[in-house]
Amino acid sequence: MARRVIVDCDPGHDDALAILLAGRRLEVLAITTVAGNQTVEKVTTNALKVVEAAGLTAIPVARGAATPLVRPPRHAPEVHGETGLDGPELPPPRTPVADRHAVDLIVETAMREDDVTLLALGPLTNVALALRREPRLSQRLREICLMGGSTTRGNVTPAAEFNISVDPEAAHAVFTSGVPVRMVGLNVTQQVVATPERRRAVRAAGTRVAVLAADLLEFYSAAIHRLYGLPGGALHDPVAAAALIDPSLVRFAPMHVAVELHGEHTAGMTVCDDRYTRTAPDVPAARRGAPPNAEVAVAVDADRCFDLLLDVLREYP
Ligand code: BDR
Ligand code: CA
After folding, report:
1. 3 neighbors 117 (Cβ within 8 angstroms)
2. Most CB within 10 Å of its CB: which of 57, 188, 197, 217?
3. pLDDT of res. 154
């Protein structure tokens, strides 16, 4: 049975690919948008363009938070362009945005439907606000599977990954919420790279949606190559979706994750501690660290993740 999910996102090239994956392999109850890769207006337009291009307009799309909880907004035009989805030419969307705020749609959907997973692919502002708005939500959600953070290096600073770094206070609220959290961070997502060979395979898949995905990957990969020297764009958000679609693709380990809120050089870092489950129970508490509050991705099967994406793109009409 496909997982029932709400996709909270900031499309964004890799978010768009994650929506395409989720649209055919998960039961997507709603798509909610949050300021991140671009302004919330732009990423909402992009989400609507993607659902229209993929024939997924039955899924409601709701606009969410325009700014992080505490800090000023920050976007990533150097990666995703001025529109947030530069590259392919997509017509202005005709599908209207939902008539309520993303936070309301998250709360309503998760309180109405059982067993909902939140797949969070952008800064965690909407998720944190929803948890505040409806305290019972923490008992209702099956889990929050988020793309963000890293057990190793960051991408916007040596320590911090973009989604966590844009709204670290929201990330802190999520990791301390008591909801089961799965963190899919850069340590695995940067292993799933759209190399030139893989991009050719996407285009060769031939469907209209595959050609869209290929156009997205061309722009995104050029930006990532320029910024990080990688041979193509890392499929960050699709890997988080893939972890829900096929649990054998990503391996997780229990850890305590703390979000650094104050560090001069480390703000937005996810400090991942796996000592608790590895040390003997009689080791003094101070040496064991805190009990796990998350399952953290530690390994990924990059080839099979990419094959999943290809299979799905071929399935579109
Ligand atoms: C994350 O930041 C965004 O730019 C991507 O969409 C992804 O969610 C990677 O750090
Ligand atoms: Ca994203």
Report:
1. yes
2. 188
3. 97
